[in-house]
Each structure stands twice: as structure tokens, then as C-alpha cells.
Amino acid sequence: MAKVTISSVIDAPVEQVWARIRDFNGLPSWHPRMVESHIEDGKDPAAIGCVRNFQLVSGARLREKLLDFSDENFLVSYSILETPQPLTNHKATLQLRRVTDGNRTYAEWSASFDAAPEEADKLAEGMGANVFQGGFNALKSHFAGQG
């Protein structure tokens, strides 16, 4: 099983960062690689089991199922149901934590998945750099100067 974890510190209070990312259907509003998203079957985007269907800038479509969601713990977990990437058994978690020094946010995005041994490292590297760090960079840029 391949694993990847990316973390960052965002210069904004955890409540503000969570408000920006908490909508499971809202990736296009804050992540630069996502261009369109909808929740299938008209379900609530905070309902465990709902499926988001979204398109990447590249044109690829993904379907992801919400596994866990907590406003109290600033946490969202999901699994990829369909992706053009050669991976299976995917589970990811994005969690925010309060940094009291400077009223900032510690953000951690991690995933585990199965892939062919010759593909696993490349997939983990791409997921970490492009998806996870790309999202954190966009959040850091958004909150820059909003002290």
C-alpha cells in the first residue's frame, strides 16, 4: 500500500480555513486543478456516503465518496471511486488543526492506496505535489495578507 502525507501551515484561523474548504462539493472554489463539481443524486455535500463527481483542468473526471466529515474536528475523509489513475483501495483525509502561536492553521492531507509497485511512487508523488500541496498553496495565497 502506498502512502503520502503533505502538511502545511496557513496564516489564517482554523475556522476561516475550514469555512473555505468544508464544502465537499466546493473544490473548484478553492483548488486550482478542479474546474467543475456536482454531488450525485442531489444529496447534501456533508452527508456521509454522498458522491462528488468533478472535472480536473486536464479534462479527467473523478468520483469520490465522502467517508467522514466533522465540523468539530475540521476533518473530511473520502475515497476515490473512479479515476483515470491506475490505483485502487484509496482513502484520503484532510484535517485542519489550530495553531495557537499566531492564530494559524496546521493542515494535513494524507492518502493511502494500492497500485502496481512500478507506479506507486510516481502516483504518490503526483498526488502529494499536484493535488495536496497545490491545494495548500492556493489556500496560503488566498489568505495571504488577510491577517
From TrEMBL:
Q: Which residues form the signal peptide?
A: none
InterPro entries reported for this sequence: Polyketide_cyclase/dehydratase, START-like_dom_sf
Q: Which Pfam families match?
A: Polyketide_cyc2 (PF10604)
Q: What is this protein called?
A: SRPBCC family protein
Give the organism, scientific name.
Mesorhizobium captivum
